Amino acid sequence: MSAIEETGAALPREKTDVWPVLLPLIVAAAALPFVGSFSTWTTLTIAGLAMGMMIFAMSSGLTLVFGLMDVMNFGHGAFVAVGAYLAVVALAPLAVYAQSDQILVNLVALVPTALIAMAVSAAVGFAFERAFVRPVYGQHLKQILITMGGLIVAEQLLYAIFGPQIIPLPVPAALRGSFLVGGAAIEKYRVIAVVVGLIVFVALQLALTRTRIGLLIRAGVENREMVEALGYRIDRLFVGVFMAGSALAGLGGMMWALYREQVHASIGGEMMVLTFIVIIIGGLGSVGGCFIGAVLVALTANYAGYLAPKIALVSNIALMVIILLWRPRGLYPVTSR
Amino acid sequence: MMILSGGAPRGRILTAVLVTIVVLLALAPFLFPGSKPLNVAAKVCVYALLVASYDLLIGFTGIVSFAHTMFFGIGSYGVAIALYGMGAGWLAIFVGVLAALVVAAALALAIGLFSLRVQTIFFAMVTLAVASAFAVLASQLSWLTGGEDGRTFQIPAVLRPGYKLLEQPLFGVDVNGRILAYYLLFLTVVALFLVMLRIVQSPFGRVLQAIRENPFRAEALGFRIIGHRTLANVLAALFAALAGALNALWLRYAGPDTSLSFSIMLDILVMVVIGGMGTLYGAIVGAAVFVLAQNYLQTLMGVAFGALNAAGVPFIAGFFNPDRWLLWLGALFILSVYFFPAGIVGKLRAESQP
Fold this sequence. Notes:
The complex is a heterodimer.
Chain A: H1 2-8, H2 19-35, H3 38-69, H4 76-91, H5 95-99, H6 103-133, H7 140-162, E1 167-168, E2 178-181, E3 184-187, H8 188-210, H9 212-222, H10 224-229, H11 234-260, E4 262-263, H12 267-282, H13 287-307, H14 309-326
Antiparallel strand pairs in A: 1-4, 2-3
Helix pairs in contact in A: 2-3, 2-13, 3-8, 3-9, 3-11, 3-12, 3-13, 4-6, 4-7, 4-11, 4-12, 6-11, 8-9, 9-11, 12-13, 12-14, 13-14
Chain B: H1 12-31, H2 35-61, H3 68-86, H4 90-115, H5 120-140, H6 142-145, E1 151-152, H7 177-201, H8 203-213, H9 215-220, H10 225-251, E2 253-254, H11 256-259, H12 262-275, H13 281-310, H14 314-317, H15 325-339, H16 343-352
Antiparallel strand pairs in B: 1-2
Helix pairs in contact in B: 2-7, 2-10, 2-12, 2-13, 3-4, 3-10, 4-10, 7-10, 8-10, 12-13, 12-15, 12-16, 13-16
């Protein structure tokens, strides 16, 4: 009797694993005594959060694509670079609005730019998927080689079209500068970046947990064959996820370009390395882990950059090693692969 | 066949091609006098060794590493730092090479133990991250590495161009220290290549190929996959470091562009794919074809660039700028992986099969 009742009852809730969530807080708290001054610490933390949000936007697509189709796209950085260059192209005709010191007028310039950057990145992602990813499904070695080749070609095309020089990209007027909160200087743009990043994260989480497509994606990450057996076309879903991931990477690239106030095609390769570290830390395939990983990497990089600039260069690798020693498959391992 | 450890090239055309390349390299100082052809020949030798060591990984073990230039760079910098610090002497070379080998082996072991247990993708990602961090580190620690400028150093007098080995010219060529250095390089590469051939023909090499083909089955047969893969990674790193040391000795310089940059990694990938993965001989063919093409095609691109600029289409000309060499290389690389995965050696072997 009890067996029947048990099968009828709801499945026991999985224990939520809180340690990874606490990790960024622990790191932030641990850094405070070393940094010394509270206001400096606040500035660094906000900068870290802003950086983390941008890195999260760039890496979330990558981790989902891997989880869903076992495809690791070594050319993901190309979408970041495309987004960055589109920011330059799209902001140029809207420069009048970007120069205004009214924040709403600035948004008239920024929102279309972001939309264009995302749309074009998604289109580039679609082409990239067709040309470089689809022909080598399931063949890891070729996949790694070809997508890496795709990154090189895309990067060189950008050089050929826009030239090898660094292009300056000023932040819209109203977002320039910083304000003081209790002695801590907080750059306005960073706050915007944090807000946008949080919106992306929440939207992504809602889409994944509250919609039917999200349900299918999560099921596909868990067990692709089973979902296919139920009659869903995972490969179509995959193209959609790939394009969405590319669009997010483009958005991240645009935000990063505005953050650095300059654009160069090498941004693709640089960000690629960072996103790899983030998704390895987060656990391949996990969006939540990716978010925490991005924040952790960015916070560590900022604190280390302030405390010991020489060590900062290897702080990301050190962080990755420590996390993997603790959890060899990343913070939230999703796939059994 | 003893010297080839039973791993003959297989195929008449292939054997002919390989013999031609090796003979040309062996006689290069006398056949093509002058410093540029000698530099090209030396580059072919160094890259043949480097690519062969990479083939141990990608071709025989089936794992993709993006950190191979890191080990190449460790070899280069090991020799460069030792010769820079201790002065031009054989002891300095020995110390430099030894230190480089120790560092390379330790790093390869650490990376391997960390990331080889999961799967190839994970390893590729980790090596990419570590290698890029290492490159940044090397350019930042300028007190040790000379930063972006690198390190220029002196080599023992016997190997310098000023040293005369024979009073009389031999076959019309002055036999100086430079030629001696070339033969030192050439013979070292030949010896190391034969050692690698021995490794892949050994039972250990066979197990590596078994793991590449079917890891589960190899594990079921009782072979420790992680152990074998890690050892292969360490061996490849050691050979790459040796190649780097030879390269630095030949150039009398070690810097980020010649030993650590990511474009070298791409060159290696192109060479190993064009030559033929998992053949080891592919490294020789790939390196020879690639280095010649690089010297020749970049000039050609320069001509096209100039012509198109003169014709008034600077936008199109931009694609032919010699600086965009990587664009065409990348395209060539993708196309070879798609349509030509067995490479030249695989193709030639298939031709001569009845």
